[in-house]
Amino acid sequence: MKAYFWRSNTITIPAALTLTVALLLTGCLGNDEEDWNGKNISGLMPELEFDLINSQGDPVSSNDYSGRVRMLFFGFTSCPDVCPTTLQKLNQVTSALSPELQEEVLTLFVSVDPQRDTPERLTEYVDFFGGDIVGLTGEELQLRELAKRYRTTFGYEEPGPDGNYAVSHSSAIYVFDREGNPRLLIRPNLSGEEIRHDLVALIQESS
């Protein structure tokens, strides 16, 4: 079974089959208390946990960003379409929140292209999309372990004559609550309003 979230010039990959099967088996999981727009993944994935470096080159862990609703997205700064489109949408979503609610949400953009995405490049990239986005990266092994933790992966295509190469990665957005528990899987076809609804609901339930 293949379930591609997004088709574009950048090759994107589906979540692992185990997650797909789990979601199919649970059907409308999670709709008993809240009418989520994203897929409820409560109990299907581990809590948010990582040790990486931020866009200033400093070591950070998931604990450094605790206490806020966090959206985790894998990508790379040379991405021609999926990454900028997604980050722009998330910035529009958070910017539409009240100032008080904006402080409760953070986007974690994890670059899976450490060879090209230096801290300086990451800083310039995430700053372009707003102040509530944190750029993260690390050694390839660290990144692969993190991707595997959330049942996805990434890969590098063969470089072209100019040395540039495409990177395959998931287009899914993983949403964690204030305590770092996995809550939602946001698909690219959701509207900004649908994402905003889910974020507000997560903020309010733990306020």
From TrEMBL:
SUPFAM superfamilies in UniProt: Thioredoxin-like
Record PROSITE patterns: PROKAR_LIPOPROTEIN, THIOREDOXIN_2
Residues where Cu cation binds: 79, 83, 169
CDD domains recorded: SCO (cd02968)
GO molecular function: metal ion binding
Cystine residue pairs: 79-83
Superkingdom to which the source organism belongs: Bacteria
Domain Thioredoxin: 41-207
Matching InterPro entries: SCO1/SenC (IPR003782), Thioredoxin-like_sf (IPR036249), Thioredoxin_domain (IPR013766)
Similarity annotation: Belongs to the SCO1/2 family.
Cross-referenced PANTHER family: ELECTRON TRANSPORT PROTIN SCO1/SENC FAMILY MEMBER (PTHR12151), LINALOOL DEHYDRATASE_ISOMERASE DOMAIN-CONTAINING PROTEIN (PTHR12151:SF25)
Protein name from the UniProt record: SCO family protein
